[in-house]
Amino acid sequence: MAVDKEKLKQAIRLFLEAIGEDPDREGLKETPERVARMWEEFDRQRSFDFKLFEEFGDYNEMVLVKDINIYSLCEHHLLPFFGKAHIAYIPNGIVCGLSKLVRTVRAFALRPQVQERLTNQIADFLMEQLKPKGVAVVLEMEHLCMSMRGVMSPGHITTTSALRGIFLSDLRTREEFLKLIGKSNQ
């Protein structure tokens, strides 16, 4: 679904008025346009070509991209949550370009979200696209809805994980992943 730029600009203007701001003052008069352009940019990043490579079909060890910077918006308060994503998969005859793992994270994160759903969406998408032996996704995020409102306690990290296939059924594979991302007790 495409962003309705005009409706969004009207909504941001109304929002600014509703919180007691003057949307025509110098610092805010361009804000509705800026916000609309930002959401158009987010919308463009949600679709991408998930390029697969079969010529590396004999590679059957873990592929891991860790410390992927990730930003999203809490769907309950529209405040950011941000942190790191760690993604691994074990190929089953097909690999993808490494940038596609980063693009997958971005595609699902650039919309109002909850971290738990985001974690599952990434894992499920990779299972569907790659048909690997398994996928592991760990997200470590700080939520501004907890840091700057509510309990007002910054610095807390919420960790979620989604394990599929061999990462769920084989303890050694899971431990290898956790060790590689620095989360294992070993």
Spell out the key features of this protein.
alpha+beta; EC 3.5.4.16; zinc; 186 residues; GTP_CycHdrlase_I_CS; GTP Cyclohydrolase I, domain 2; metal-binding; GTP Cyclohydrolase I, Chain A, domain 1; GTP binding; five-stranded mixed β-sheet; 25% strand
Structural commentary:
With 186 residues, the protein is of the alpha+beta class. Helix content is 40%, strand content 25%. Helix 1 crosses helix 2 and helix 3 runs antiparallel to helix 4. The N and C termini lie far apart (46 Å). The model has no long low-confidence stretch (mean pLDDT 93). Pfam families: GTP_cyclohydroI. Homopolymer.
What is the CATH top level name of the largest domain?
A: Alpha Beta
User: What is the annotated CATH architecture of the largest domain?
Assistant: 2-Layer Sandwich
SSE order, one letter for each helix or strand: HHEEEEHEHEHEHH
Let me know the number of strands.
7
**Strand residue content:** 25-35%
Radius of gyration, in Å, reads 19 Å
Helix content: 40-55%
In terms of topology, how is this protein built?
Layout: H1 5-18, H2 31-45, E1 52-53, E2 63-74, E3 80-90, E4 95-96, H3 98-109, E5 112-113, H4 115-130, E6 134-143, H5 144-147, E7 158-165, H6 166-169, H7 171-180
Helix pairs in contact: 1-2, 3-4
Short description:
With 186 residues, this protein is an alpha+beta fold.
